[in-house]
Amino acid sequence: MSLFKKFVDKFTNKSENAAPIKEIEIKESDWDELTTDLIQSDLGRELTNELVAAGKRSKEKPFQAIKSKLEETLSKKSRETNSGIILVVGVNGTGKTTSVAKLANKLPGKTVLAAADTFRAAAVEQLNTWGQRIGVEVISGPANSDPSAVAFDASKKFIETGVDNLIVDTAGRLHNKADLMAELGKVRRVIEKSAPVSEVLLVIDATTGQNGLAQAQVFTEAVEVTGIILTKLDGSARGGIALAIEHKFDIPIKWVGTGEGVDDFAPFDAQSYLSGLLG
Ligand code: GDP
Description:
Elements: H1 5-11, H2 28-40, H3 45-57, H4 62-73, E1 84-89, H5 96-106, E2 111-115, H6 121-134, E3 138-139, H7 147-161, E4 165-169, H8 177-191, E5 197-205, H9 211-222, E6 227-231, H10 240-249, E7 253-257, E8 265-267, H11 270-278
Parallel strand pairs: 1-4, 1-5, 2-3, 2-4, 5-6, 6-7
Antiparallel strand pairs: 7-8
The protein binds guanosine-5'-diphosphate.
């Protein structure tokens, strides 16, 4: 998933006997090529310009300068997932329901799920199927019931049974931002009658490119997002959107999805991600 490989390779002398390069001469056209590459990788113009400027400023160690800038870009917030009540939010189709099941399968302790995406009957069915497959209880209500009623029942159950985690799948398609804010706010308030919400994880599909930034904008305005689940990194996406989001919103990516299977899910490892990008 290297973003810089082509660029770095061009200036790295691979022959063992060759004299080391003291000062790398990078032409303006090379920087232009890198700029185009980074923008096409969904890094966004703002971050791309910052990285290229950092590289240009450092005559002797441009790659090191870009790497340092990238390190600065990543969020310094914790990438741990707090146990307790976890709300999973995001636009339909991003992989929200699948990620709820995958997360349940990874978190330590006992977990129950709440199917609060009641506007989409298929989501409730899908979560029930996942629950059976991974052996996790799913709390759901009748079709078209109020999402907050399901969330309320689930949070009561969470307290009564003393399980470690409750993961709540929420509705992803609402008419407008005001509806979304109202719905998510209500779900949260209802849950917090029983216990505080410990995490709000936003699901972003890596293949949606810059649209991911727009989604992050809407959801961060609607609810306090504490982490991101970046899905579909197995596809053609190069994951640049991850950096763009961390840069703009300072929300740490906590998990990445790399396929449709329940095990295609892992904690986000910032250092190995950066090494991957730099090739
Ligand atoms: P929701 O509408 O956001 O709840 O999305 P779903 O969980 O129903 O997922 C939508 C589609 O994306 C399904 O076909 C999933 O199998 C698929 N999907 C979810 N996560 C990933 C992933 O990490 N990689 C790939 N390739 N597909 C995924």
